[in-house]
Amino acid sequence: MSNIVTHLPGLQDPIHDAQQTFRALLDANARPGTAYQINAEMSVPLGLTPACGAACLTLLDLDVVVWLQPSFDTEVRAWLLFHSGCRFTQYPEEADFALIQDLTALPELSIFNWGTAEKPEASTTLLVQVESFEMGQSVLLTGAGILEQQAIAPTLSLDFWDFWMQNHQLYPQGLDIFLFTENSVMGLPRTAKPEIYHES
Prior knowledge:
Blueprint: H1 14-30, E1 35-37, H2 50-59, E2 65-68, H3 74-84, E3 87-88, E4 97-100, E5 125-129, E6 139-142, E7 150-152, H4 158-169, E8 176-180, E9 184-188, E10 193-196
Parallel strand pairs: 2-3, 2-4, 4-5, 5-8
Antiparallel strand pairs: 1-9, 6-7, 6-10, 8-9
Helix pairs in contact: 1-2
């Protein structure tokens, strides 16, 4: 195997930045639909947002298998391998984590591992980059971690929300998602039930 070299550093303050990022991810997962800042100082390869890059370096390690959307530049793969030691797969159903740059370019999300009745936690977690949390279709979320309902509008397609309703109905199996903008994260666990908000 050839040596992987990348000129881009990882987290500038690895311990503190990883702790802060992990806390943001935990909070985002516990409170679906609420955005949390990720303030890690770092340089990331072209096509990867700083928030998503920090999450990758916090979550990925030698034991993790990653599916990387082919649209990402090869430098992203080299950077992740160099800084985390993670393994990559071409097969979505084998992935612990999937890193997605453009959700609309995927034929369907059912290609990933939804877990089993015995091991629902074995499903793939999706790390999805989006343009904004405020410029998409308005959706009302209900479920665990949400007091009554949470209004969100990330830049995701209507087809995605149709899929997400199916995903929710399969609970305890199903996918969990973290959405990332440039410097923040929003959790969308399988327990979150969506309802499309139609203005009267």
